[in-house]
Structures are given as C-alpha cells and as structure tokens.
Write a structure and sequence with these properties.
This is DUF4476 domain-containing protein. InterPro entries: DUF4476. It comes from Bacteroides stercorirosoris. By secondary structure, the protein is of the alpha+beta class. It has two domains: about 25-115, Beta-lactamase Inhibitory Protein, Chain:B, domain 1 (2-Layer Sandwich); about 120-218. The protein is built from nine helices and four strands; from the N terminus they run H-H-H-E-E-E-E-H-H-H-H-H-H. The chain has helices at about 1-25, 30, 40-45, 125-140, 145-155, 160-170, 175-185, 195-200, 205-215; strands at about 50-55, 60-65, 75-80, 85-95. Strands 1-2-3-4 form a four-stranded antiparallel sheet, with helices on both faces. The radius of gyration is 20 Å and the shape is globular.
Length: about 220
Amino acid sequence: MKAIKQTLALLALIIGISGCASILGINKDVMMSVEKGMSQKEVSSILGKPDYRRFDHDVEEWEFIKNIADNAGWTTIIVSFIDGRVISMDSFRTDVPPPPVAVYPSVEVGGNIPSRPHATVGRGMNERDFQSLYNKVKSKPFKDDQLELLENGIGNRKLSCKQCVRMMSIYTFDDDKLKVLKILTPNIVDQENYDEIINALDFISSEEKARHILGIKK
C-alpha cells in the first residue's frame, strides 16, 4: 500500500511539473524551429494550438501568445499560411497575457478557434503585402533608409493599429517608433484601437507624443 501511495505521489508531481512547464511557455530555440514550408500540423506540434486564428483572402494566420523562457514578459508569435504551408513568421514582445483557459475551450486544429478582439480581418493591408513591406524595411541596414522606404512603400494603402505596432517593433527606442507612427498615422483605419499603439511605447512622455500624432484630445 505504501508503495502504491508513493507511486501516485510521484505521478502527481510529474503532472504538476508538466502543468507548470505549459504555463511558463516554450524555449526560444523551440520557437525558432518553425520554418517556411512546414504544415499546420507540424507548427501545432511545436507551438501547440493557436490562441487566435484569422483569415484574409488566401492567407490564414495563427497567433500564439507565449512566455518565452529567454525573454522577459510575453511574446506574440504570428505564423501565416497559404495552402496549409508556412509562408512567414513574426514575433514581438507584448504586454498582453495569454487568454484564460476557461474562456477558450480546447478544439482540434482546424476547428472553431475564437477570433481575437479587435482582429483586423478584412481591414488594413493584406497580410502578404504587409509582410513583404515589413521584411523590406527591416532588411535595410540604416534607419534613414528604412524610414524612407516605409514612407514611399506605404503610399495610400490602409493598415490596422496592430500592423502599425508590428512595424514600430522593428525599433527598440521610442523616438524611432514615433517616427514610424508619424509616417503611418494617415493610413490607419481602425482608430478605435489606438490604445494598442499607445501601449506599445515605454515612456509616458512618448505616449503623450503619440496621442498628439494620432490627434487624440485629452
């Protein structure tokens, strides 16, 4: 009987450790193992089930919110698919915690995964076009060249606050993020989500400057 109790206690400990590992998230190396051309099943085996799932024409987008072991805070991972295969992946720091388990029941991949509040399906730039512009801007070695390319590349194309934040995330410092915001503000279509942009800045003074750029009155 004593041996059975010890075995049960050991099993409970293992389950508890596994649960903690799930809460802590994943290792950065695991995240970086996602590659172009992978199937949705392969991505699911690496990152688990997506927290949010969106469609934009022929592009399907999965969004994961993970606590990466090597980073402080939460990381948003966005994986885009065409015909069930990975075409791009983006990751950036975020202050948004993962959704409560009770709110989002377990579903099979390909099932009805809830859409994220303020999702921009059908609004803003096509994900493929945005990702192309993002990659081109990020690939430039000098900041001035990046900003010039962004200003010329955005043209009259519309984009969402979420896409604006992703473009701002190319830079570390608020001053540079504000320069991006100044370029992109006329193109933003979902003004009701301006808070997403404000929350992407580190300092109160920068938040005030962003409100001024966005035309938000006190």
